[in-house]
Task: structure prediction
Amino acid sequence: MITIDGKILSQEIKNEISKTVTSQIEAGKNAPHLAVVIAGDDSASLTYVESIKKNTKEVGILCSVYQFPASVTEKELLDAVDFINQDDEIDGCIVQLPLPKQIDKQKIIQKMNPKKDVDCFHPENMGKLVLGEKAFLPATPHAVMELLERYEIETAQKNCVVVGRSNIVGKPLALLLVQNSPKADATVTICHSKTKNLKEVCTQADILLVAIGNPEFITAEYVKKDAVVIDIGIHRIEDKTAEKGYRICGDVKFQEVSKKCKSITPVPGGVGSVTIACLLKNTLLSYSRNI
Result:
């Protein structure tokens, strides 16, 4: 069994970004600039934004955080996004989800300049993804594709099963895998918690990609022998025996499934480790279009 190490790959991508950023700065250009809009006090979101700040600093990308309280009005957020759209020195922007309940997230997302939408949430960028046109790739699906490519996991003519149908992960990931490209060309099945005979569908997968949002849902019974398993979920589970009082796990029961599959991503240390690196890669892409 091969562990697909996202930490190593993330550092590899960040080293590539850092090298490019350094060369641009040495040539007298400004550094790339990423803006992050966040509202409320969701702990997972706050942790993610702190990680973004740490990683942008590591590669030489500037990061501006526009942080608002949970009581923020929709107009205040729209005005902030409009300000970012108008600022020529900002290359990329993300709006961290979830937003407070009084905010229509689609209004905020659609307000974003598609050319700065490095998380690929804007309908224009999603449309380009569907059509197979050049666009930013959503960070988490992008991370999965980077892992598959750099670990030389063949997708062409393989049966890929995506468990999960979210607009952020499941759907765009399926679109990437089915593209007419040497790095894709897979036969893709999308399923979810309400899929009939889900276990049987999963056991047909050469590559099983799981983003169902349910801790350790996928057991060995769902996995074909020698399949590749990509676990995209991440959960904090209470565990009184652990030093911190909790443990981190994914949507796949790692200890059980790892004994049956050919390759697997761990949680933590798998897809999540590469996601921010891909966000930075998109920021650099947006920057390169502006210089």
About this structure: The chain has a mean pLDDT of 95. Residues 204 and 224 are 7 Å apart (CA to CA).
